[in-house]
Amino acid sequence: MPRKRVTIGDVAARAGVSKSAVSFVFNDRPGVSAAAKERILAAAADLGWQPSARARALSRSRTQAVGLVIRREPELLSTDPFFPQFMAGVEIGLTARDYSLVLHVVPDEKTERAAYERFARESRVDGVFLTDVRVGDSRPREIAALGLDLVVIAPEGADAGGDVVISMDDGAGVRRAVHHLHSLGHHRIAHVMGAPGYVHTEARRRAWQETLAELGLPIGPVVTADFTGAGGARATHELLDLPQPPSAILYGNDLMAIAGISAATDRGIRVPEDLSVVGFDDVPLAPYVVPPLTTVRQNVVSWGTAAAQTLVALVERKQAPTVQLPPVEFVVRGSTGPTRNRRPA
Amino acid sequence: MPRKRVTIGDVAARAGVSKSAVSFVFNDRPGVSAAAKERILAAAADLGWQPSARARALSRSRTQAVGLVIRREPELLSTDPFFPQFMAGVEIGLTARDYSLVLHVVPDEKTERAAYERFARESRVDGVFLTDVRVGDSRPREIAALGLDLVVIAPEGADAGGDVVISMDDGAGVRRAVHHLHSLGHHRIAHVMGAPGYVHTEARRRAWQETLAELGLPIGPVVTADFTGAGGARATHELLDLPQPPSAILYGNDLMAIAGISAATDRGIRVPEDLSVVGFDDVPLAPYVVPPLTTVRQNVVSWGTAAAQTLVALVERKQAPTVQLPPVEFVVRGSTGPTRNRRPA
DNA sequence: ATGAAAGCGCTAACAC
DNA sequence: GTGTTAGCGCTTTCAT
């Protein structure tokens, strides 16, 4: 059980120097002799002392912490493979620089706004990440107005309005998926969109459409859903009810795709014999559904790390390191196969 | 864009009072006239002022923040429905008292230990949650030695060594599952355990075993796995390779159960006709696999809220509110059915 | 190279 | 009731 809190004064006394000398050593600043430095470090180690983040935050006017606000409906919260991985990546970038992550999980827009306000007003964090960007999103401006540094995570090509962006190439994955289906002979390729309004939803739809056009395929039917299982099932029934149902469906995420397989199976439609299905995310369950899901995998952890490094650099007004983000992967499993209905391409 | 940071002094000046008056008002302490209070609140609102968490933390020697360390192997990270829901629940309990959550995601034990040390040494948080408790876990003692307040989240009956515990009744869910299978006529009911060493893994196994004994059923075969899909599949093959394979398998979580269905299907064994499968967690995908998964659902969000309220009370040395935790639910779907092999009970 | 001292913005004794 | 003032533990300028 620790006695009274040991402070910089104790360390200074033990090392026979002034408090500023100790401070200098712990901030990698010149002006302390090698001998003194040695004694100081020894004293600190003996006493088990480490600068108090509280006191430091006050005197430096920086908390050495950044914030992340997660807005998610309960249903989607534990579904989304994004946040856990993103946070794990963020952590890697943050601990390397001794930063902490302050998290808020909020249910709606009002609470979300309040969370950013609190971050700024209470000076709890120096900067924040912004994810789940929507089309015409006003939050970047609002956050900047609060005086917080900001790094936006958005798909490539999204309108960022001058903000610092870590972009992920959603389009590349979709293009590979469409090419894969095309090479299997499909030419009626539908798309089930995620929740409308998100730049991700849009980016994926656009890539689907453009790739079909490039390949000279007809722009297949598209249904708007909401990233949930129920929504994916509903959309699938809608597509299969069409007079001319698609032979392949590309879904905005894995959850909808898996629900889609289930919906098709219920109708007696076999996957992949009668219908090919492609997801997006590669959730851990994807290899274990029946049939195993063909899907797009992105390296979310690496975005997290890149975003964290960039935000820290921004906060410290330093040059952000240029990070090389690994490319998307396309994972072919059992849910896609050749068409039977039509001649191969 | 905000000008210079507004401080308590500005508010005091504008309201024509002293700083302490302002401080008193913002800490709900008596000793300020109604009139003064009104002027102070008005002034604060005009200036958009709010006490700085930084300064407050220093002078109160409390940060008004609590910490959560998540240790997870990459593979399991986005698989586990627990943490997102738990965090959402924690948030509810925390924001109500204006506390923040500081999060660390770590890959291994060494880093985990370092995270708690940093929490304490840097005085970043006032208390922490401890999850994923292992049998004979030394962390409660270590954390207490660091001077951090602690709330442990563990299944009922786990040895807590005097710590404050929010307990969830894993056993109740398992008992209902076994009774359900028994009522369907199964009497060879196997169990696939999660990763060894965790109190959850143990609690679930024990409940399975005790319930079988109560029902006069033979203690079926049990295989230790690791909560992963691959592990679940492997365990399933092992059980089905037995000279006398079980007619039902109870898995330690949904991911293993779903992988188990997949493994069985691959061998031409139909679920639920030839084999009944029960999971644990009720992940969002559970209703959408084929066949839909029968499983145990716990209200993780409510534990999070209870844990947060308890930790805040602990930190503030107040009486913890007694929280009523909702009971487990058992969700019957399509992956369980009557035995064909043997006579019904 | 080293030390003294003035903040950082708030809380809480204490005196008025 | 209300104002004054001394911390909280560190950083950082400025003499020495």
Rounded to the nearest angstrom, the distance between the terminal CA atoms of chain A is 74 Å
CATH topology term of the largest domain in chain A:
Rossmann fold
Across the major sheet of chain A, the strand order is: 2-1-3-4-5
In oligomeric terms, what are we looking at?
A: homodimer
Q: Please give the most extensive interface between any two protein chains, plus how many residues each contributes.
A: A-B, 69 and 69 residues
Specify the biggest β-sheet of chain A. 5 strands, parallel
Element-level helix/strand string of chain A: HHHHEHHEHEHEEHEHEHEHEEHE
The tally of domains of chain A stands at: 3
Uncertain runs of chain A: none
Approximately how much helix is present in the residues of chain A? 40-55%
Fourth-tier CATH superfamily name of the largest domain in chain A? Response regulator
The first-level CATH class of the largest domain in chain A is given as Alpha Beta
How many H/I helices of chain A? 13
Label the overall shape of chain A: elongated
Average pLDDT for all residues of chain A: 92
Tally of extended strands of chain A?
Answer: 11
InterPro entries (chains A, B): HTH_LacI, LacI/GalR-like_sensor, Lambda_DNA-bd_dom_sf, Peripla_BP_I
Protein name (chains A, B): LacI family DNA-binding transcriptional regulator
Pfam families (chains A, B): LacI (PF00356), Peripla_BP_3 (PF13377)
GO molecular function, one term (chains A, B): transcription cis-regulatory region binding
